[in-house]
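Researcher: Good morning. I'm working through a list of sequences from a screen, and I'd like to move beyond sequence-only analysis. For each chain I'm collecting a predicted structure so we can compare shapes side by side. This is the next one on the list. No need for commentary yet; just the structure.
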Amino acid sequence: MTPVQRAAEVPTTIGVEMIGIPEGSELDLDLMLTFVDEGILVTGAVTGQARVECARCLGEFHTDVTVNLTEMYAIEGKAAANAEEDEVRLLDGDLLDLEPALIDAFGLEFPLSPTCTDYGHAECINPDTPAPDGVSGDTEGRIDPRWADLVEKFGTPGTSGTPGTSGTPGAAGGDGAPGTDEGRA
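Model: Good morning. Structure tokens for this chain:
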């Protein structure tokens, strides 16, 4: 086993428009190279600084990102090298190319729509950004407006219902016979 601890420059941008490690940035490699029968097993962690643009407020900030890497690099002519092209990476003589493995690893690690709160901020860094749409926080006792008319008719789940009903959906006037509700139009 051979430990590799060094810094390396990113040759191309890793990531997408909203989150990525820019070209020319430095990555810290903390890897272990294990020589096995079929080739070299690379394990360890890679850390870099990503530029993030929040999908909610469009504010930009930088954050440290780390991925754990486990990749097998096969020696040409060995059994592992005969596997499908996407399943195993090949050594190029005495060299191994980490770039495709890093692109894959960081690509799977990065969220599709990063937000400030994904990276430790309590709220968006742009103070003019409104709260996110949708229901957030406590929903206890809230009635979805689409179902409000049904709640008026039948009561809320777990209650005895509204006056004039027995609390059982379909039961009208308390006698249990459907369709006998005098209040129905």
